[in-house]
Design brief:
Elements: H1 2-12, H2 16-35, H3 45-64, E1 74-75, H4 86-109, H5 116-137, E2 142-143, H6 144-164
Parallel strand pairs: 1-2
């Protein structure tokens, strides 16, 4: 299983340039919008830019890396992906790992998300949005397990943020 995870993570590195290309300008614009009406130094652009880079990278991995109509399906059975085979188990772990930085970066960039429930809710809603978009475009299967594992990842990101700050 570890071999699958490492291989998949290495293959996702090819989306880093896109994340930088889209995330940096979006982060600069977004941090400028958030800074309006606030005192200088109240809003640091760095966490917002890093968050936007990661969000662009996440969208590349979960949406743009797939062709329209390549994956069509709906799976509402909880825990249906775990235990089938080593490959599927790796996907479950990867879904958790994908959202750990997201939960961490949400807390770092947006002080209003620095509560456990809020961070968990943002992670769950982001995951739900990704799943709906994948279903609508056929670029991924809508799986309830993905929402659960992504939300767990966001929770772990929150815990990591709390431990490190």
């Amino acid at each position: 299983m570890i071999q699958y995870i490492i291989k998949d993570m290495v293959s996702m590195a090819r989306y880093i340039p896109f994340g930088l290309l889209l995330g940096i300008p979006a982060g600069v614009i977004f941090s400028g919008i958030l800074a309006r009406g606030r005192k200088k130094g109240e809003v640091s652009p760095v966490p917002i830019i890093v968050f936007n880079i990661y969000a662009a990278l996440m969208m590349s991995i979960t949406y743009l890396s797939r062709e329209n109509g390549s994956r069509i399906g709906l799976d509402l059975e909880l825990f249906s992906t775990w235990g089938i085979n080593t490959r599927n188990n790796a996907y479950v772990v990867e879904n958790i790992l994908l959202f750990v930085p997201y939960g961490f970066l949400c807390c770092w960039a947006f002080p209003g998300v620095r509560k456990f429930f809020r961070c968990t809710l943002v992670g769950a809603l982001t995951s739900l949005g990704i799943e709906i978009l994948q279903l609508a475009t056929g670029r991924g299967y809508f799986q309830i397990d993905d929402i659960l594992t992504n939300t767990i990842g966001a929770m772990l990101g929150y815990i990591l943020f709390r431990l490190l700050t």
